[in-house]
Each structure stands twice: as C-alpha cells, then as structure tokens.
Specification:
Elements: H1 2-21, E1 77-82, E2 96-102, E3 107-112, E4 118-124, E5 127-132, E6 143-148, E7 153-156, E8 161-166, E9 172-178, E10 186-187, H2 188-193, H3 201-208, H4 212-219
Antiparallel strand pairs: 1-2, 2-9, 3-8, 3-10, 4-7, 4-9, 5-6, 5-8
C-alpha cells in the first residue's frame, strides 16, 4: 500500500512540475490579438512555416554586411539588421544580427529591444556604451558604462535602455547579436516625442517636469530612425 502511495505522490509531483514549467511562447511582435475566424487572421506569433520540401540554402543566407551603412543623418549612425525578414530560415530560431556604422561622434541613441538581449563587439573605432537598469527599490536607476575598443564585447540585457556613442575622430563599426528573430526597437526620444498621434503635452510636461512650450518644441522636431 505504501508503494501505491509513493507512486501516486510521484505522479502528482510530476504533474505539478509539468504545470509549473508551462508558459506562453515569447512574443515575436508587439501584440498578437486573438481572432475566432482564421480567414481574417493576418499574422501569427512569428511567421508561417514553409513546406520543408521546398526549403533551400538561400532560405538561410543573405549578403551585404561588408557594405558600410549611410551615417549621413541627424544621429550619425546606421543599423543594418539581419533578422527573420532578411533570412527566412531564422524563423523560430530565436536569434538575429545587426551591423552598426557610426560617423565620428555619431551615436545609436538611447533605445530598448523589448524582445531580446544584445551582445555587441566593436570591430573598428572606439565606442562609449552603457545601459540603465529598471527602477530600483531606492528609487534610482543605475547606469553601467564602458569604453570599448576594437575587439571588446559588451552585453545589453533584454528590455533595458542602452546606447552607443562614437567618441573617436574616425568612423566606428560594431556587430551585435540579439536573442530574438525579431527583437524590436523602441528609440526613446522617437517614441515619446514623435508618436502618432502625439502624446498629450500635459502628460509629458508633468512627467518631465518642464514647461509645455518645451514639450511642444520637442514634438515638432523630426525624429530620425536610424534602423
């Protein structure tokens, strides 16, 4: 009888462990609203899968990362992404890559990747990089920074605001891997001051504790997207 109880305990424990470890799949886009009529569906959480019999080597290939991006823009940088939209074979694999070119004193402005951690390596130049933590119990947000030279590597944890700045007199180049086929990008200034439609200036004036005229001025700016 004790053996039966022991066996039942193991079964219950196994079921509990199975339930506890179950989770929803990580999102691969900003949202995926449920629909009851499949013929009205536009997207899935990711991409539809190609018939394996029709897959070929080109589905796992792209080229062009040897070509420098155009950094002649207000922020002085260009991000060239290699994600699932460039390489269909990345679908469901949870990884992507970017090349980032920086003009002298150019920057990749403060931004977040809501769906991916980033690991960056500098291949040319010198970058000042950093990230800010989420709100801490003491009410502060810690800033972690580092000056990176050729061959140096730095990690930006998923979802945290981070940036890179070329502090050198010459162009800089970096490559970064991201832990998602579509990590997403939220450029902070663009999202806050350049949303469509714009956020109510009263909300932003209160949040930033400045005069409404300053917010109105910022919302009239052209916020460049370097992606």
């Amino acid at each position: 009888m004790k053996g039966v109880h022991f066996l039942l305990s193991l079964v219950v424990l196994a079921l509990a462990t199975s339930i506890a470890s179950a989770y929803d799949p990580s999102p691969l886009q900003d949202f995926c609203v449920a629909v009851d009529e499949p013929h009205k569906a536009l997207f899935v959480n990711g991409k539809f899968c190609k018939d394996p019999k029709e897959v070929n080597a080109d589905d796992f290939f792209t080229s062009g990362l040897n070509i420098a991006g155009n950094t002649s823009n207000p922020v002085g940088s260009k991000v060239t992404a290699v994600d699932v939209n460039k390489i269909p074979g990345l679908n469901t694999l949870g990884i992507s890559l970017v090349r980032i070119d920086y003009a002298p004193y150019g920057q990749n402005p403060p931004h977040t990747h809501p769906r991916g951690t980033e690991i960056l390596v500098v291949v040319e130049g010198t970058l000042y990089v950093g990230f800010v933590t989420s709100n801490q119990q003491d009410g502060k947000n810690r800033l972690f920074t580092k000056v990176l030279n050729k061959g140096d590597v730095f990690v930006f944890p998923i979802g945290l605001i981070h940036f890179q700045f070329n502090k050198g007199h010459t162009p800089a180049v970096a490559f970064a891997g991201l832990s998602s086929q579509n990590a997403g990008v939220i450029t902070i200034a663009n999202a806050v001051f350049g949303s469509d439609p714009p956020i109510n200036p009263d909300v932003l004036a209160k949040a930033f504790q400045v005069d409404n005229n300053i917010i109105n001025l910022l919302q009239k700016q052209f916020w460049y997207d370097n992606n």
